[in-house]
Amino acid sequence: MKKTSLIISCVLLLFTSCRDALVDQINDTEADLQLAGAGVTVKPANKFTNLFNRYGNGWTGGDASYSVALPDGRSVWMFGDSFLDTVYADYTRPFAELVRNSFVVQQGNNLTTIVGGTIDDPSALVDTDDPTLRWYWPGDGTVIGDTLYVYMMYFQKTGPGGWDYAYQRTDLVAYSLPAITEISRTTVFTEPHITWGTTIMEDGGFNYVYGTEGATLTKYMHVLRYPAGNIHATPEYWNGSGWTTTIPAYNVGRLEKQSGFAVDVSAQFAVFYAAGKYRLVTQHNLFGPDIYSWESINPTGPWKQRQTIYVTPETGDEHFTYNAWVHPEFGTSGYMLLTYNENSNNFLDLFNDARIYRPKFIFFKYN
Prior knowledge:
The chain is mainly β. It contains 2 helices and 26 strands. The strands form 6 sheets. Strands 1, 4, 5, 7, 8 and 9 form a 6-stranded antiparallel beta sheet that branches.
């Protein structure tokens, strides 16, 4: 059931009007992070960490951390389970329920949170009639003309446990720009074995949409494509040797390594073009601390020369990291922005230290 959107804005200390002002230059004297892998240089992205150091009046924590550049210089961040509550000076927060998804619009150093419901009773921006049993988590998005399109994954509760839920379908939600007002919601993918919309790569005459297969720790990647600018066209699916309009059956069309074995990926991964190659960035399985990069000369692979980009220092004890993602629109001086999320198996940790459940930001570049 669609609800009226409530826009909650928070103006920070610094004011700029363009996305580039936040990442105009990386300080080359800043020490490289020591957990970087060979073949890459990694530096902290402190401006982004400080920007998302939020105390209230909107988003104060969340995961997924997708972003899409808008034509007017803004960027919209799409988060999954999100806190919208007060954070105290010592980083504790009062008990509050999560909403399943939210958007944060960035203009320079200004952030504006978009959710549903009211400020006293917020709900997910893309909501359902029973959000305790059915909900949407965001995938990637793209802009065509004056419309923002976002793939939203629909999940359903299957049992009493925290991990008892299952993917059902992917809906394409359209928003008019510049207001970011929902104008349509269309179910586009219903294959239960592939979660489509994990990442979108815009390349030449096509947009490539990647999906994740697998309900266990081991997951595999798939890809479809449609003509650039025509997101409603009949998609073509990669079947392992060519493109077809036939939806691949289970086990068919998995993207492969150079060895011929399927590439294993995490639930969220990024595909993009950089330094003369197509790049795949993913974490090791689910909740692994190692963030890897693969390369290829084609969007379909084969993928080769796996290298470690970074090893997340937060992983350990009850804490885990996940959802590595690359944001090319924030690139500068050869570096690209990478985020990953931190969480805890002890839910109370998220109330004792709000910084745990926020994106972690680093810049990296290929040497």
